[in-house]
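Summarise what follows for lecture notes:
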Amino acid sequence: MRLEHWLYTVPLRLRTLLQRRRVELELDEEMRFHLEQRTKENIAKGLTSEEARHEALRAMHGLEQRKEECRDARRLNPLENFGRDLRYALRMMRKSPAFTAVAILSLALGIGANTAIFSLIDTLLLRPLPVSHPEQLRSVFASMDGGRPRFYLTYPMFEALRSRNEIFSTMFTWASHRFQMRSGPDMAHVDGMLASGDYFTSLGVSPVIGRTFTGADDHPSGGKDGPVAVISDRFWARQFQRNPAAIGSALMLDDIRFTVIGVMPSGFFGAEVASRPDIWVPLALDGRIDGPACMNSRSCWWLIFMGRLKPGISDEQAQAALKVISPQIFRDTLPPGWDSGGKQKYLRSQFFTSPGARGWSFLRIQFSNPLAILMTLVALVLLIACANMANLLLARGSARHREIAVRLAIGAGRGRIVRQLLTESTLLSLLGGAAGTLLAFWLTRLLIAFLESKQQAGPGLSVQIDLHPDWRVIVFTFVIAAGSGLLFGLAPALRATRTGIGAALKERAHNLRSGEGRLGIGRITLMLQATLSVLLVAVAGLFAGSLFHLLTLNPGFNPKNLVLIGIDTDKRQDSSIVLGNLYGRLLERVNALPGVRTASLLWATPLTDSGWDEFVSVPGRTVISKQQSDTCINLIGPRFFDTMEIPLLAGRQFTETDTAASEKVGILNELAARRFFPGVNPIGKHIELENTAIRIIGIAGNIKYFNLRDPAPPELYLPYTQKTGKTWSLTFVIKTRSGIASIYPAFRSVLREIAPDVPTGTIETMQEQVDESLARERLMATLSVFFGILALLLTSIGLYGILAYAVVRRTAEIGVRMALGARRHDVIWLVLRETLGHVAIGIAFGVIAVLAASRLIASLLYGIRPNDPGNLALAVLVLISVAAIAAYLPARRASRLDPMLALREE
């Protein structure tokens, strides 16, 4: 019976939807038939035709009511009513194009900003890896004596952990690496990864052609195919034009012949988010690429660990198992040469796990907190936009009070009117969301271009973020768009339907008063906008001030007209003397290039968050602790201090006579000289580094070594010509006379002439290096200032709209005041005083919010206090100025009213 009922009713309901006009005509005919039959029956009872029809209508309780009952019986009324509401909303929007444009633009700005930031959050923090069952993956890291987590670990740790593992079905590890690839006569750099043999099988991803390497290939000599490589789909297209014959082809990477055995699917990037490696090779081949140092060293922290949990193993069980095996693993992998304090701290370390479904990301560590703050800021911007829209709808609702009163008077329920008004506000919000999506696409591209140009995904890898929208971004945009429509539309809808019908029909729009005062809910939204605007402007001022202090900070050197060009000699098997002579010849030729004022060499470029530090001792002194003796080391060439414009406070610079055969010499910075030789001239004194005596020949000024935020550390400069053993690749630092356009081609020409097999890195100015070191601060300052300006713009629009409406409503009052002798400036001050009073209340709450919220961002600031009074005063002054300007225009218009016209209108 139930099935027969549905087989009968479903076609009828579909016919109602698809042939609505015909069904309504049939309903009209049926109602008329029943009315005529009842009329005939009444006439038969002796009533006149008019009386019979009247009695029939009364018995049926109204034709329209009976029609509604029939429509309700179809159970399609909600859908039909929604269609009517939607069509009516579209007509109202078409009727008021200016209002519609302002509303959609305001909402597009708020929703677009939210979608852009959320897209970045989704990519870096929320999106799971495109691998098989990512929820089973767990990252493994170490906590050193309860301190900050350490994500980069050693290979001996991995071997020990894998051998004692009872919780993971598979474990894998990887490290980023930039390969030198020979392409014809030139050498090029290619982003890649060194991965353990179980890397691909653990992730559960198969190649599109060929195979992936396994544990059998993860040996220093390679497997049955020798050294093998797996390439990305992008590299396959670029290097082999997607030719299947790429399988079995040879690649010369770091002077080692690799055989291509597989191509990964498009979009696969591995387990490291925001990276796009082109080549994967077995980890054990690192011994042939970089030498055995890292593979066998207990002091080389370079690998990321991850594993896949066994079925039935919970996170609590996994953590308990790691806690049990951690002490033995850390005893077995204790690095040599550490002092007793460092050893005790190391032995108290422990392994931990964290969810690995979202992969691992170096950017996630850097930008988790900043992105959370930015998401909060854009949410406040959207809230201001909603308050702005609430003000506009309040004004519009009052202008439509007669229409709403008529609809209520002829029988429409209050809920029906509220639903209609909410449909209009939600439609506006959804259209604003659609426009905001387009804006978000543009904003997101700007963010990605900024991050990809300023950051690295990890050591040796450039940032390449895949920002295609997924279901989370789509759902987020829809939810905030629909939610915003309901948020800013509900209060105006309820207020518009609360007006008395009789009063609404009798009085004019500008004379109508609600029980809530002249502004009512608008007063509350105005104060809310002022509160949030003060908060956003103050936060923007803090981040901008922090960036300003860092930009104006003296790093200890002059970055102006300073060019950095790196070359890669790590793969050359020459002795340190031969490489030193090569660098010497190149440096001599570079100094002779046109446009070069002076040039030198260095190993660790300042402000890159990387470097080399060692424990330095002073013969005859034992009072220096290990922590105080930890000194940053850098290798430099002759005229380095002249090139960088670092002041030489005493002694001399390195010269060409400081060779491997001469006495070992060094230059201390001012901080190191005071620490190692307090109250004594260090020139001619000796220090010891790695059991080698070094005579101090100079004292240089302090410079920022790792980044601009940290204070200058103690530093020891050594001549690269006296470096024994393996010589690292050096960077040319060149002070130009003016532009840099001609330097790079001339440098490449010199390099190809002297060492054609050495690849050249990209050219970069020192100023760009400074800017890259401030990428996080620049991002926070730029976006917070943008959001602050956006908040002021939205607040001014809302303020102008509600005051313009208030002036229209008070036309008669203003006319009476002017007729009684009020002057123009009195009228202007009347409007400004009331407005600034409401803004002042909002500012007071905003100041409290700033004082409470600024502590949360204190860790991201530099050189400025979170509760800086000057910044707070500036934010208040800016908002008052914007409010005064927005209020002055309607006030000025009110002061120009003709009192006779205003009174005659009444």
About this structure: The chain has four domains: 2-75, 134-357, 365-551+775-905, 569-758. Confidence is low (pLDDT under 50) at residues 509-519.
